From TrEMBL:
The keyword Transmembrane does not apply. This is Quinoprotein dehydrogenase-associated SoxYZ-like carrier. Residues 53-162 form the Ig-like SoxY domain. Residues 193-282 form the Sulphur oxidation protein SoxZ domain. Residues 1-38 form the signal peptide. InterPro entries: Fuse-rel_SoxYZ, Ig-like_fold, Ig_E-set, SoxY, SoxY_sf, SoxZ_dom. It comes from Ancylobacter mangrovi. Keywords: Signal.
Length: 287
């Protein structure tokens, strides 16, 4: 066989090999896309079954322009998925924002938290971190003062968030349990309540392992009993900013960032967990 013939045969073999690789990649990409699409469609079925348990037969406006939800398409850490929600009523709308419910369809306990707001709020901004146990829609449903429900959702690709091991061992986690960080944040406004303006937010973090009941002790290989922050109340003076009822879908060391109407009065936080512990924190005006 001549050198030219051998070279031609080798080139054809290489081309056939590359073609097979391309076809294999396209095939598996199609399977992955099809599986992801099936999971996304299946999540709507989950929501349709879940919705009556949470809201009964009340109508919900889907894809509402009144509610905006930001969440990653693919989470870097399924145990700490950052989300932010904004509810904004149009100018002249006399209604107010009363509640906000966060739901992760495919989680073992889908309702992550329900927030109830005080005062006459025409807009609310809120951010937190969630556990996402498998590919799932994350939903934010706002309830207005007239009882209307308005929803938006994002499909998040993540898995194992509810069973992921805690970042700290149980002894250290319980040693600092309940410690709070509370501060005012905003454009050029860092510190106490008197420095806040209309665009400021409060940032709250509570040290707590927020055990989901699905995590395993890496030493004993036994499941750690569920233990999580299930209630938070934030007041400005005597007026309610918000109260929260939470579940296992809130991440370890629950963190909440939220807008409020600053008055310069003391901010007080009361929180509690499923073991009956209570935690308190204050943010006092300067002077």
């Amino acid at each position: 066989m001549s050198r030219t013939t051998a070279h031609t045969g080798s080139t054809r073999h290489t081309m056939r090999h590359r073609l097979r690789l391309v076809l294999a990649v396209l095939f598996f990409s199609a399977l992955t896309f099809s599986a992801a699409g099936a999971q996304e469609a299946g999540s709507e079925e989950t929501w349709n079954a879940l919705k009556p348990d949470v809201f009964g037969e009340r109508p919900i406006e889907a894809a509402s322009p009144l509610v905006r939800l930001d969440a990653p398409t693919r989470a870097e850490d399924a145990a700490m998925v950052p989300i932010s929600i904004e509810v904004a009523l149009p100018e002249g709308d006399s209604r107010t924002v009363k509640k906000l419910t966060l739901i992760v369809d495919e989680n073992p306990a889908p309702v992550a938290a329900t927030f109830t707001f005080g005062g006459a709020r025409h807009d609310v901004t809120l951010g937190t971190r969630l556990r996402v146990n498998s590919y799932s829609y994350v939903r934010a449903i706002a309830e207005l003062s007239d009882g209307g429900l308005y929803m938006t959702e994002r499909f998040v690709k993540a898995s194992g968030g509810c069973s992921a091991p805690a970042m700290k061992d149980e002894e250290n986690a319980l040693k600092n349990i309940g410690q709070m960080k509370l501060r005012v944040v905003g454009p050029g406004k860092e510190g106490d309540a008197t420095k806040a303006n209309r665009f400021s937010q409060l940032q709250l973090m509570i040290r707590h392992p927020n055990y989901s009941g699905l995590q395993m002790d890496q030493v004993t290989r036994l499941y750690i009993p569920a233990k999580f922050v299930d209630s938070i109340e934030v007041k400005q003076g005597d007026e309610l900013v918000f109260s929260m009822v939470g579940g296992i879908s809130l991440s370890e060391d629950p963190a909440i960032r939220f807008s409020y109407e600053p008055s310069g009065k003391e901010i007080h936080v009361d929180a509690g967990d499923t073991d009956g512990r209570t935690f308190k924190g204050d943010l006092k005006p300067a002077g």
